[in-house]
Amino acid sequence: MQRWEATSTLAFSTRRSARGVLLKIGRWLASEHPEGLEPANWTREICAAYVAAVDRFHVGAFTGTQNAIQQRLGQPISAATKQAYLCVPRQFFRDGQEWGWFPRRFDPGRALATPRSVKALIGPRPRVIDDAACAKLLWAGLHLETDDVPASGGTRFYSVELIRALALTWLFGGLRSDEISRLRVGCIRWQPDHDVSKVKDDVICFLDVPVHKTGTPFTKPVDPLLGRAIAEWESVRPVQPLLADPRTGELVPLLFAVRAKRVAKAYLNLALIPALCRKAGVPEADARGRITSHRARSTIASQLYNAKEPMTLFELQAWLGHRSPQSTHRSPQSTQYYARITPTTLAKAYNDAGYFARTTRTIEVLMDREAVTTGAAANGTPWQYFDLGHGYCTFSFFEQCPHPMACARCDFYVPKDSTKAQLLEAKENLTRMMAEIQLTDDERAAVTDGATAVDHLLERLADVPTPAGPTPRQMTTFVPIGDLTTGGG
Ligand code: SF4
């Protein structure tokens, strides 16, 4: 394990966390499969036993120290943790086999694959900040004062310009905390000819992001408010020596540095964000967990993707600096991870799709006001005429008729070419209204799918009585429409 850690080219933090998992595996081997303590002795059987054991691990199993997890001891571990416990030995054996340290007795990708049941539980779950809380945090960031952030040990190291620039970079930049802490002096560029001292709304401000976790340096447009806050800090930033960029090793003028020391990455999570939450009156944790530096990135990405005129996935990918919009096993938190459709957008799309509307149909209804005002309607004279196209249905409870879309032309039926219909249409006291009726699947098919569907509906209803009493078969010799069109009628 030590040899692997010394040889691997993975990032330092990744190697350190992998070391913890490998130590845990060592304890499990010592307890369950001592023959596997030598990696060369691992077989597919040991792999299978390990995968099964991981699936049953609980918090505290085979850990070195349990001080920090006292509260959760014995609880089941999360699917993401199971995935990590399998990902590390996969990498370890893949590397060891590749480097010729032990024989290729199994394929680590297959023998130590994450079970499908575990994978299914791991999905995009961007921890966006609620809209109202986000708006309050933005307000707090824009009005941040020195006293809002507690001094460390009674000494105030950071000026208000630095604190405000850092807060707005977090709130508007959509950057990872590592990128924020490694920004360089001069990272803001304005569209040519812009005078920073003049406040204009239509200016474009660009932010140069340094080399990052998944790619090379890139430039992104940001809100001018952020550009102005950084320009303000740069104007008072004391002259300092160049400092080493921890990722590239270059000597660079780091933007957020004071007294030749970089502002600690933890400052954002442990001091500035809690201070912003206090000023904004927002709890430091919500249903999705603590408000940390990464949550602003998820929130901004989600808002840009769900805006009225949203960014496309590829535009968002470029803005976030992702190598690919798709998730991979190496980069599970890619653009798709952040660009989750919000419930509001989904609700609008659902309404626009008209699932409910497709089950209804609107038809015109003529109302004979004369029949109502003269009291004739009370004596049984029709006063409502549902327009069926070829004629009118005078049945008051038309929606309850089983034959609405394949009218059987019962006693309530008035053909349009009849004298009665023509007299009705010539009346002055007519009110035209629209009425929505619910359709069954067969009826909807009859409306949208044509003659065959109508035939099917007619056949099905042939022995169903009409509101007037007789069934269609009793009223007339039943002739399907298909037969009429082929000359059968
Ligand atoms: S069958 Fe009779 S009640 Fe039904 S729609 Fe036709 S006319 Fe109206």
Strand content bin: 5-15%
Helix content: 40-55%
Mean pLDDT: 83
Radius of gyration: 36 Å
Overall SS class: alpha+beta
Strand order of the largest sheet: 13-12-11-10-14
Q: What is the count of β-strands?
A: 14
Bound molecules: iron/sulfur cluster
Give the total of domains.
3
- Overall shape: elongated
Query: Main sheet?
Result: 5 strands, antiparallel
* SS field, number of helical segments: 21
The CATH topology of the largest domain = hpI Integrase, Chain A
CATH architecture of the largest domain: Orthogonal Bundle
- Can you tell me the residue ranges where pLDDT is under 50 for at least 5 consecutive residues? 484-489
Q: Your description of this structure?
A:
By secondary structure, this protein is of the alpha+beta class. The protein folds into 3 domains: 2-119, no CATH class; 131-347, hpI Integrase, Chain A (Orthogonal Bundle), CATH 1.10.443; 357-485, no CATH class. It contains 21 helices and 14 strands. The strands form 5 sheets. The protein has a 5-stranded antiparallel β-sheet with strand order 13-12-11-10-14. The protein has a 3-stranded antiparallel β-sheet with strand order 1-2-3. A hairpin with an 8-residue loop joins strand 2 (205-209) and strand 3 (218-222). Helix 8 crosses helix 12. Residues 484-489 have low confidence and may be disordered. Iron/sulfur cluster binds at residues 393, 395, 398, 401, 403-404, 407-410, 412-413, 466-468.
